[in-house]
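Collaborator request, handled under Task 6.
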Amino acid sequence: MSEQLTLDANDMRFNLTGQILIAMPAMEDPYFSKSVILVCNHDHDGAMGMILNHPLQLNVGDLFEQLDMACETDYQQERLVHFGGPVQVERGFVLHSPATEFNTTTELSEGLAMTSSKDILEAAARDEAPQDMFIALGYTGWSAGQLEEEIQANAWLTLPLEDNQQLHKLIFKLPNDDKLSWAMQQLGVDFATLSEVAGHA
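Structure tokens returned to the collaborator:
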């Protein structure tokens, strides 16, 4: 990580697409406190990400009802809807595996994609959607150079998960309450200890 911090904000070797951001304990913004974020896109124009561990008081059944869509499968209706971030909170985004093509699908990595069109929910209602789905409202956005500046200011830890199975485990398999501690374990850092260090900095 120390090498990353020395990179110029315009140097696109510093590309966090597909990596995980972990909020430092000092992060007090209620949107991002204790958040674990997948960086879906990062380039010279800025970055876009999805918070992975902030569920809403809403399930997919509620969402289907709001969209006036019938759903034939109970387990789909019981899926939690998450808060992806404070930008465009009225808009839905679905991380899914396998990377099946829908109207607005972007492949993020091998076997992982993001779709923002309604047709993936229509497929879910018919029980024809990908098995692994993470559904969120809103996303997290950074303007050009903003994410780089925040990392240099020690607002975020970065976790590269090059093993797709590990990445899929974090997004789709782990309970929301376990995602932060699991991500910290991958870095070999204890969040409580980090809080004490940050508190005495």
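The cover message to the collaborator said: "The chain has one domain: 2-199. Confidence is low (pLDDT under 50) at residues 1-12, 196-201. Please let us know whether this matches your experimental observations."
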